[in-house]
Amino acid sequence: MIQITDHLRQVRDRVKKAAVAAGRAADEITIVAVSKKHPVTAIQAAYSAGQRDFGENFVQEAAPKIESLALPDLRWHFIGHIQANKTKDIARLFDWVHTVDRLKIANRLNEQRPHYAAPLNICIQVNLAEEPQKSGVAADEVGELVGAVRNLSRLRLRGLMTMPPVDATADTIEAVFLELAGIKRSLVAQGFELDTLSMGMSADLEMAVTCGSTMIRIGTAIFGPRR
User: Fold this and answer.
1) Residue 190 pLDDT > 90
2) CA distance 184 to 88
3) Is pLDDT above 70 for 82?
4) Residues 6+ apart with CB under 8 A from 166
5) In a 3-state reduction of DSSP, which class is residue 198?
6) Which of 36, 125, 200, 223 is in the most buried spot, having the most CB atoms within 10 Å?
7) d(CA 54, CA 44)
8) What is the pLDDT of residue 70?
9) Which domains does the chain have, with CATH numbers?
């Protein structure tokens, strides 16, 4: 598990260097350690190294991890596709959801968020490459969904999330990231209080930081290959 500590240090160094090059502060960027398909012991090792934000894709895998690691300063991020029959558990277990892409899901999360918990932090997933196999609202439909979600009292709308196409060129990745940043700026200018851009993974985190990301989702570079 010493390897995870070293990997985290390397990722933090990459973020810091990218932030400095972009004229940004490194503490503007949150590293979400994507722990799917990795054991609780790996999460504990990352936690011991100072990591507090963890991302999971599957409710059935995440639930026992979250319930066994009842640490008050851990923040859990749901970053997978949301099935309607899983919203109750997502609303109960997680602090952030990055992948809301339709009002039906937002309404269910809002209704099922426990009243003893703080409002659930939400990002709208945007499918900028219009890939049919990926979830996400189309770019020209973001404003309508953002407007509707903002009115849900048990949710706290924070920002936008996207993923570039797999095997995309650097130019395409940059274009996708810059487009999402532009959509966010436009929405802020319209009066929406958005502070989050969730974009960037292990291979393209420098590009994401340069383009304005505030949350990067890092799995392999921290935990190594998935089992």
Assistant:
1) yes
2) 28
3) yes
4) none
5) strand
6) 200
7) 11
8) 83
9) 2-223 (3.20.20.10)
